[in-house]
Design a protein that fits this description.
This protein is mainly alpha-helical. It contains 18 helices and 11 strands. The radius of gyration is 30 Å and the shape is elongated. The N and C termini lie far apart (80 Å).
């Protein structure tokens, strides 16, 4: 039934009639959720909707192969699901992230959109329930309780493989390249933000590169947990109302299409009652974010100035930095990266709290976990890529500045300590500080050692 004047059509569910927009493919349950959850305006991302479409697509095909679903209905559901996978129906996924904790409203959003579109394919106009029914046909062999955690894992692992890991590899390569390029440049090391003994700029960057390399390895380590899918457990993990072969065959199809190797959960009760895999993944994302924050902050400090800061490196000038100070250029990319890292750390706290909400046979903060985990993956990948491409690749060394700071550092006396003793070396450092002279000038004046030996001991390159 259509009310043309209001641009609405009337659809029914088990609770009665509901008016939805004429152009909507979703139905009554989705509309009720839209009205009930006017919370944030935030929606599930594309990668999650794609995962839902894949689940529904292969569910229809497998149910048809098992003789449970009419072949013509399955064909239409598959075609409609493919449109969801391809992003053609994204505007129809309208339920807020903050909804029922199982994500039932979003699962039904998918079921209704696919059913209505399948019916349009079959009979030429929108129908919410006939001949394809959202529950009886699109949701056959499934429950929101196994579909939503499955979509979460499929989306997360796909995003890690397709977006995050490639971006981190780009950043790692950029840092490795700078480590090699700066290998012969000696600068002053710093501990406690105070001068320490010399280090090569390449060594400093090699530490950054290793952080990212280890981050990549840590992310590879979470793949096993995310690869286990809850599909097949239905309501509480027992698999009620689904064929024993259903889950493994659906998962095989999803694996082939995504290029990621998924498998049915070893224990469905764990897979639905807990979200430890998501907690592990989030903790790893947080660790990588902490690495990025450390690296970005180091680059901000090393490039500070350009004349009144450390100024040991130069970073690309991308945009004016001040509305009041002409000529000022700020480290905008490192600042963006540190903000992303902070967001990911915050997301991890929310995910941790969400993963605690596994009450008996079901976690009831699945939408929150999914939203934050997928946002963290997306943000980290984007930040790593722009960090590499817009900042690290363009870094150059201020070799003269590095050399001058080394020569003037009081920490140069450290190499004298094993030869003349700690106290005598400290006395030289104090005199250098008081007179404004270098360690070398004070030590030479005191003639504490033969000139050649002193030169050798105070050679900053040998100290590295």
């Amino acid at each position: 039934m259509v009310d043309e004047d209001l641009g609405l059509r009337i659809v029914k569910d088990t609770m009665g009639e509901v008016k939805v927009p004429v152009d909507a493919y979703y139905g009554a349950q989705t509309q009720r959720a839209v009205e009930n959850f006017l919370v944030s305006g935030m929606r599930f991302p594309r990668v999650f909707i794609r995962a839902l479409g894949l689940i529904k697509k292969y569910a229809a095909q497998v149910n048809a192969d098992l003789g449970l679903l009419d072949a013509e209905l399955a064909r239409a559901v598959t075609e409609a699901s493919d449109e969801v996978v391809e992003g053609k129906m994204d505007e129809q996924f309208v339920v807020d992230i903050f909804q029922t904790g199982s994500g039932t409203s979003t699962n039904m959003n998918a079921n209704e959109v696919i059913a209505t579109r399948a019916n349009e394919i079959l009979i030429g106009h929108k129908d919410a329930n006939n001949p394809v029914h959202p529950n009886d046909h699109v949701n056959m062999g499934q429950s929101s309780n196994d579909v939503i955690p499955t979509a979460l894992h499929v989306a997360a692992l796909t995003a890690i493989n397709e977006a995050l890991l490639p971006a981190l590899k780009v950043l790692h390569a950029s840092l490795q390249e700078k480590a090699a390029a700066f290998e012969d440049i000696v600068k002053i090391g710093r501990t406690h933000l105070q001068d320490a003994v010399p280090i090569r700029l390449g060594q400093e960057f090699s530490g950054h590169a290793r952080q990212i390399e280890l981050g990549i390895k840590r992310l590879e380590g979470v793949k096993g947990s995310l690869a286990e899918l809850a599909l097949g457990g239905t309501a509480v993990g027992t698999g009620l109302n689904t064929h024993p072969a259903f889950a493994s065959q659906v998962i095989e199809g999803i694996s082939k299409e995504t290029g990621s190797q998924f498998q049915e959960a070893e224990n469905h009760f764990e897979a639905q009652a807990a979200q430890d895999g998501a907690a592990q993944a989030s903790g790893t994302l947080r660790t990588v974010a902490v690495s990025l924050m450390k690296i970005a902050n180091d680059i901000r400090w090393l490039s500070s100035g350009p004349r009144c800061g450390l100024g040991e490196i130069n970073i690309p000038a991308l945009q004016p930095g001040s509305s009041i100070m002409p000529g000022k250029v700020n480290p905008v990319i490192p600042e963006a990266v540190t903000q992303v890292a902070a967001q990911i750390i915050g997301n991890d706290t929310a995910i941790t709290l969400g993963c605690q909400a596994g009450n008996f046979e079901l976690n009831v903060m699945l939408p929150l976990i999914a939203h934050n985990l997928l946002q963290s993956i997306e943000l980290l990948g984007a930040a790593a890529r722009i960090f590499a491409e817009k900042c690290v690749n363009g870094i150059s060394a201020n070799e003269a500045r590095c050399k001058a700071l080394v020569e003037n550092s009081l920490a140069m006396c450290t190499s004298l300590s094993p030869v003349i003793g700690y106290d005598a070396a400290a006395a030289i450092a104090k005199e250098a500080y008081a007179t404004g002279k270098t360690i070398k000038e004070v030590a030479t004046g005191k003639k504490i050692l033969p000139e050649k030996k002193l030169e050798a001991l105070l050679d900053p390159t040998k100290m590295t």
